[in-house]
Design goal:
Elements (H helix, E strand, L loop, with lengths): L10 H12 L3 H13 L6 E5 L4 H12 L3 E5 L8 H9 L3 E3 L6 H12 L5 E4 L3 H9 L1 H6 L2 E4 L2 H12 L7 E3 L4 H4 L2 H18 L7 E5 L3 H12 L3 E5 L3 H9 L3 E2 L2 H7 L2 E4 L9 H4 L6 E5 L9 H5 L2 E8 L2 E6 L4 E5 L5 H4 L6 H21 L7 E2 L3 H14 L9 H7 L7
Parallel strand pairs: 1-2, 1-4, 2-3, 4-5, 5-6, 6-15, 7-8, 7-10, 8-9, 10-11, 11-14
Antiparallel strand pairs: 12-13, 13-14
Helix pairs in contact: 1-3, 1-4, 2-3, 2-17, 3-17, 5-6, 10-11
Bound molecules: adenine.
Length: 417
């Protein structure tokens, strides 16, 4: 077993964080108890490429407890929590992850996890799957299946499947309702605000807060910013999303307009070049800009750099750019995911459902993957309801059930006024 982390001496702090997360992730912990007994993942070798956080550690521990051999790398150079990585390494997990790695090191870590010749892969952003397909097609042909955690990754994998390029079945964990309707909305909403506050400590109330993109993530961020007293401005390209934003009480305008009035900007689109040179040219002095989309391409940092006279790190995850005309602009987390690079990512309670979905998707692939077509699959819809019911139960909440008579009524086309 090999591993590479920043500093094994951080393990005790990481262990405490993981324990804290475990106390907030009852659904995943129930799965651990059940499948540890059954050793359901016996014979599985799982390579994972996903943010190394305390919540991810709970997933890794659960997979290992259920009998899987696991090798892990982080899916973003700035999101690894070094103490958590150290704690996993101290438990003899094969893990390759540290905060602040460069691109070459990032791919080196992925390659190291492939040395175990995985039977299953778990991705957040699809870099592991892309690497397997482009560099190790023979290995890819042997893999039983993979899962994908995030919207951006699922889009790319669907495009790959459409072109007939996918070599093994992938389950779109992102598309489970108990993932996207909770993690993407409430997780991104809270953790992105958390990242902005940790990196800046600015007062949010009264600020013009510009959210680019009103998908699930953008909507979550907008909702929480509004709750903190911000004047929320949305920029969009999809008419229905823009309309929804208007009816939910936000101002909607183009980024060219928003750039002139915003105090804080956050991109949540999954698209490149949302904030570019012409926007930087009109930003107010003191504007804060950041991103919560998967890749760091939403803010064109090259065009910001070319307008800068100087830059310095004024606080952790906060770079002050002095532009050539003297205005100052603050870029958070180098344009990478502000919720993970400047804070700790989504809260454990939300990741509980996302990672329970991951666990069940991997289990399905372990058991049935050989019989599935090499395309992108959804999780069974009933699983969403079961997971949500279980989550509610852990919160001490019971809900009503339809009677047999009501079920009959729902499909009775002879009933009317
Ligand atoms: N993505 C967003 N938040 C996360 C977290 N806490 N752990 C792992 N992946 C995440």
């Amino acid at each position: 077993m090999s591993q590479k982390v920043k500093d094994l001496k951080l393990a005790e702090s990481g262990r405490l964080k993981i324990e804290w997360a475990e106390s907030r992730m009852p659904v995943l912990m129930a799965l651990r108890e059940e499948h540890a007994k059954k050793q359901s993942f016996k014979g599985a070798r799982i390579a994972g490429c996903l943010h190394v956080t305390k919540e991810t550690a709970v997933l890794v521990r659960t997979l290992r407890a259920a009998g899987a051999e696991v090798a892990w790398s982080g899916c973003n150079p700035l999101s690894t929590q070094d103490d958590v990585a150290a704690a996993l390494a101290a438990e003899e997990t094969s893990i390759f992850a540290w905060h602040g790695m460069n691109t070459e090191e990032f791919y080196w870590c992925i390659e190291k996890t492939l040395e175990m010749k995985p039977t299953l892969t778990l991705d957040d952003g699809a870099d592991l799957i892309f690497t397997t397909h482009s560099k190790h097609p023979d290995l890819a042909r042997q893999i039983t299946g993979g899962t994908e955690e995030t919207t951006t990754g699922v889009h790319r994998l669907r495009a790959m499947a459409k072109d007939g390029k996918l070599l093994y079945p992938v389950i779109a964990v992102n598309d489970a309702e108990t993932k996207w309707d909770f993690d993407n909305v409430y997780g991104t909403g809270q953790s992105s605000i958390d990242g902005i506050v940790r990196a800046t400590s600015v007062l949010l109330a009264g600020k013009n807060f510009v959210v680019a993109g009103y998908g699930h993530c953008g909507r979550g961020v907008a909702m929480r910013a509004k709750g903190m007293g911000c004047n929320v401005i949305i920029t969009e390209v999809t008419p229905t999303a823009a309309l929804r934003a208007v009816l939910e009480g936000c101002r909607v305008m183009t980024m060219d307009e928003a750039a002139k009035v915003g105090d804080i900007f956050i991109t949540a689109t999954g698209m490149k070049d949302i904030l570019v040179g012409r926007h930087f040219d009109v930003l107010k002095n003191g504007a804060v800009i950041c991103n919560t989309g998967h890749y760091d391409c939403e803010i064109n940092i090259g065009e910001l750099d070319s307008r800068a006279r100087s830059k310095r790190e004024i606080r952790p995850a906060n770079e002050e750019y002095t532009l050539k005309d003297g205005r100052k602009v603050y870029l958070l987390a180098k344009g990478r995911l502000v919720n993970l690079a400047a804070a700790e990512g989504h809260p454990s309670e939300v990741m509980d459902m996302s990672f329970a979905n991951q666990f069940l998707a991997l289990l399905k692939l372990h058991r049935e993957g050989k019989g599935l077509a090499p395309t992108v699959h959804d999780l069974p819809k009933e699983q969403d309801q079961e997971l949500a019911r279980l989550k509610l139960r852990t919160m001490g909440i019971d809900i009503d059930r339809l009677t047999a008579d009501q079920i009959k009524y729902a499909t009775d086309y002879s009933a009317g006024t």
